[in-house]
Structures are given as C-alpha cells and as structure tokens.
Amino acid sequence: MNEHGHHDRVDDVIEQIDALTADAASWSATGEPAHPWWVKPSPGAMTAVELTMTGPGPIAISATDPYTAIADRIGDPFVDRISHLRRVSFWVGGNSVAHQPLNVGATKFLHHLLADVRDGHYIASDTERDHARVLLAAGTLPEIHGHCLITGVADDDDTPAPLGENFQSWFTHLLDQLAQIRAEALTEAVVRALGLPPELRDRIAVVSLG
To answer: pTM of this prediction?
Structure first.
C-alpha cells in the first residue's frame, strides 16, 4: 500500500470511531478529560451536570437563581422535576415531552443510576433502594426529552443545590468506564481496519489529547 493510500485508510478509521463507540455505549467520551472538574465554583455559582443530546458534562449555574439558570439551559421557561433519590433532582422542560425529541442517552443515564442504586453501587437508603427496585421491575421509568440538568437538593426544601460528594464520585467513575469503553472500541477499530494481527491489540495505547 502506498503512503497516500495508508493515510486515507487511517482517516477512514478515525471517521468510524464515533460510530463504533456509539454501539459500545449510549454515550462515549468526547475528547474531554475523563474526570470532571469538581472544583469549588465561583461565588454565587454551583456545579450541576448537564445531559445534552450528545453526552453528559459538569457545568456551573447560578446558585442564587437556579430555576432561571435551569430554564435557560434546557430551553424552556417552565421546568419539571424528576425525583427518585432524596438528594438528586433531574430537571427537564415542562413542555419537553410534547416539543422535544427523546434524549436516549439521558434516559439511559437515569436508568443506569437507578440500577446502581438497586444493586448497591450507589450509596442510598434502604427506602431508595426499594423504590429503585420497584421502578425497574415495573418498567415504568420516565423518558427524558430534550436537555436535562441534574442538581442536588437543599436540606430544608426541594430547591436545587450543589451535587453531593456521593453523586460526584459515582459520576466520575461512570465517565471513567465510558472512557475505557471508548478506548477499547478505538483499539479494536484500528486493529481491524489496518489489518493488524490480533496479538498486537494489547500493544496499542490510546492517549487522550483533550
């Protein structure tokens, strides 16, 4: 194979990576560092997790007027709260079911969180575990349409609050898992597309440039 043909083949591999990793996971890493920046936000702000149509990521929103900030991010003047855990709220548009497409990734994210609660991989109360078990067994979990924001819950009421260390730790671990899935799928794509011997698979290193 000449040099030009080799580069064309490599380019084809790169173009196929996202499709291959999308088959391996509902969301793949997007070149950003695997660990979110759970640093202390600036005064008057707090960290939330945004679930867009393409993937999850931490963002800073106003802590003094969180409802307006949430409405702005999800693109709906009215917000609804999905609450299945005492200290975690999923915020969606009040009109999202009627006017926004199904957010498959966000829906799977919620289901995965509840499955980890049920299976003991997320620190939760017995009541929350029982609730998650019933929801998953019944198959009646809500679908998320459009963008979604995840926040913590204030101690004294149901207003948005910063996410606690429990969720932060779980979310960081989830991103690590997705990054590993992407790396494995990328390695497999390179091996197959370039016709490399399978025994070279373990010698290929995937390095993030994000």
So the answer is: 0.71
